[in-house]
Amino acid sequence: MSSERAAPLIWDTIERxxxxxxxxxxxxxxxxxxxxxxxxxxxxxxxxxxGEQGLRNFLGARAEFFDESHTVEQMSTPxxxxxxxxxxxxxxxxxLRHRLDGSPVSDTFTGKAFHLWEFAPGAGRSGDGxxxxxxxxxxxxxxxxxLDDNARRLFSRPTNGLNLDDR
Length: 167
Known about the structure:
By secondary structure, the protein is α+β, with helices and mostly antiparallel strands. Helices cover 26% and strands 39% of the residues. Strands 1, 2, 3, 4, 5, 6 and 7 form a seven-stranded mixed β-sheet that branches. The longest helix has 20 residues, at 3-22. The protein starts with a helix and ends in a 13-residue tail after the last helix.
């Protein structure tokens, strides 16, 4: 498959991933619908959540965000890896909102994030290799730009994951 053919399939896979993530889908549904069994996420040169328990920990760490959006602004040309998976890099704009316990107001977190993604084509449960079978194998943050103060604090210690304790 060419990069030109893979690109729209990868865009679709990213959109399906964020649809589930923003809907706060449980780990089981995410694994069933969009992730590989060896999925990993986190920060390049920082904390990586991997496998089933890692996915649960990642979703738990971000559970207090009740309003969020991720808009992919740019994607690199997909690159086929020797193992048959595909890699791409994205730049996206994000918006996250959470409410402090007992507070009538909420905090927002905004900025841009750069991600390294890996995708497994035809890795779905059906095994028929259809376009909808593409799965996310990795979503790793490579860096940030244009962070507001809250987002700068949230992502200040990537070796520890999300920093929601320093408010």
